Amino acid sequence: MAAAEKLPFAGAPEGSRPLHVAIVMDGNGRWAKQRRLPRPLGHRAGVESLRRTVSAAPGLGIGWLTVFGFSTENWSRPAAEVAELMALPKRYFETDLGRLEREGVRVRVIGQREGLPKELVRLVEDAQARTAHNSVFNLNIAFNYGSQADIAATARRFAEEVAAGRRDPSEMDEAMFGSMLATADAPPPDLIVRPSGEQRLSNFLLWEAAYAELVFQDVLWPDYGEEHLKAALAEFAARDRRYGAIVADDVLAAG
């Protein structure tokens, strides 16, 4: 994954920035159930899918990949499954962090640290520190993350700044609010993909998704790979992104 391997996305204008793609990694449990396997094996197979996707993304013109690994709502699952989900980042970083570091991948884990095992927090902080200066590719892992919680926390921080006299309410606008979110280091997502056949965002990047294209694919996450990512990008390339405006042909057609 050297810098020279970063190819322009076929559907993007020449000279445009690499894409930001976000993926809801969904369907691990159903994948295991279809095979009459314990659910933890589905989650472990999902880690293999993450490896494949991260490996393929830079060559497809993707510069930022944000994946949804564990939501703030997932704490309501059975304790044994939560424990397995907590172990997944450890398993991934222990096997892949050295390679990610060498290949220029910057890793960030967004989400609340409160409630996570101390060992996991240390592992996350170490992964971020070791890859902080990398710039070939950006991997954001949303873990113990919920978009509504992030929005509420941002509003609360700004209100505290105003109450302390360090900010004026008139300073707040969309750009400032976005700069205070957990995702501030990345551009807004161009494309949000959800495999597994479900068609909802599930509290993922709600603010950031304002003008993202949404693609839903009928494949369970453990089966996901480069061909599915290419298919999502092809559908994205066929979309007409208007950002609330209209194009010249529409004006002419309207008379």
General description of the model:
41% of the residues lie in helices and 15% in strands. It is an alpha/beta fold and 255 residues long. Strands 3-4-2-1-5-6 form a six-stranded parallel beta sheet, with helices on both faces. Helix 1 crosses helix 2 and helix 2 (39-56) runs parallel beside helix 3. The chain is globular and about 55 Å long. Mean pLDDT is 91; it is low at 1-15.
Low-pLDDT segments, ≥5 res = 1-15
Mean pLDDT: 91
How many strands, what sense, and barrel or not for the largest sheet? 6 strands, parallel
- List SSEs in N-to-C order: EHHEHEHEHHEEHH
**Annotation field: number of helices:** 8
Distance between the termini: 50 Å
Strand content: 15-25%
Strand order of the largest sheet: 3-4-2-1-5-6
Rg, nearest Å: 19 Å
- The percent range for helix content is 40-55%
**What gross morphology would you assign?**
globular
| Overall strand count | 6
**Helix- and strand-based class?**
alpha/beta
